[in-house]
Amino acid sequence: MYSFCLLLLIGLLQVGVLSAFVPSTPAARTGTLPCASSIISKRDSNSNAASSTSTTLGEMKRPLLDQIASTLFNLEMNRVESSSVPDDKGRTGEPMEWAADDSLANKFSELVAGNDLGYKFKQWVADIVAGDYDEEQVEILVNDFVAAKKVTMFSFTTCPFCRQAKDYLEQEGIAYQAMELDELEGNSGNEIRATLGKMIKRTSVPSIFINGKAIGGLNDGLPGLMPLAKSGELKKMI
Fold first, then answer.
1. Whose CA is closest to 82, among 70, 73, 93?
2. N or C end of the chain: smaller count of CB under 10 Å?
3. What are the pLDDT digits (tens) for 52-89?
């Protein structure tokens, strides 16, 4: 029980650092996956389009899991709302300072990212929030998106790590395409996030791909965008 509680605490803290949940609409729990054109809202690096979504979990078929998911979901939505501030580019979200390499948030993110228990807990939560969906179809959509451009990214608009990754790519003149999971229709963002976790063992965002290969997030992963940039490997891959 102690180890489970400790793991739960680690997972909740990590959820707080990396915006674990995506708002979903009531229609999201029907178990029917919309067509690709309706669930994939792509954003190119030269586009500033944005949209809003509701924050209702919707109906789930599993009451106990619904309670757990709803509680965690509401905690996360309240945390994001209370910590959100505008950055120097007018984007609203969690403080950009959290994405700094030496920040406590980043250090904690790296710690949990390298911890198998942390991944398992986050995947468990992601699966609960995603609910029942067509996993095979979502995996196809993920692969199609990743294959469409040399550099692709799964992102949350409020995530400072995601915004910092975009800023770096734009600063370096590297074209990319981002899918904002919190701007997709229905529960699609949560379904994609859960699927990504199963595909690459990483549920955190940003989730960046280069030439179809997962490289991790901003500062951590496989090995991450900034470690690749600092080593000179990023230019070779691009």
1. 93
2. N
3. 333 344 444 455 666 776 677 677 777 777 888 999 98
Q: What SS3 class is residue 154?
A: strand
Report the 3 state secondary structure along 113-143. Answer: HCCHHHHHHHHHHHHHHHCCCCHHHHHHHHH
Domain assignment of residue 28, given as a range: 2-237
- The one-letter amino acid code at 23 reads P
CB contact at 8 A, 200 and 214: yes
CATH of the domain at 13: 3.40.30.10
What does pTM read for this prediction? 0.73
Locus of tokens 């106990």: 64
Domain count of the fold of the chain: 1
